[in-house]
Write a structure and sequence with these properties.
The protein is α+β, with helices and mostly antiparallel strands and about 70 residues long. It contains three helices and two strands. Helices cover about 40% and strands about 25% of the residues. The protein has a two-stranded antiparallel ribbon.
């Protein structure tokens, strides 16, 4: 979940530039008040962990979801 102050910021693009991860938007809902994105990250585990910590430092609420949950 994105806070309102980050709605206009290209966070997913920045994520792909800063870390060696592949991003895949599985689902998204964005309005003026909140952005909710289901984002699949692929890559080496340490790189994914660093990317998630970076997102959290930005103030983005990250909730890991198992792939099987997303696919069903």
């Amino acid at each position: 979940m994105y806070p309102p102050r980050l709605i206009q910021t290209p966070v997913i693009w920045q994520l792909g530039q800063k870390f060696k991860v592949i991003t895949n938007v599985r689902q998204a809902s964005v309005n003026d008040e909140v952005g909710i994105v289901c984002l699949e990250l692929s890559g080496e585990r340490p790189e994914i962990k660093a990317a998630i910590k970076w997102l959290e430092r930005l103030g983005i609420n990250v909730e890991p979801v198992e792939i099987s949950v997303v696919e069903s």
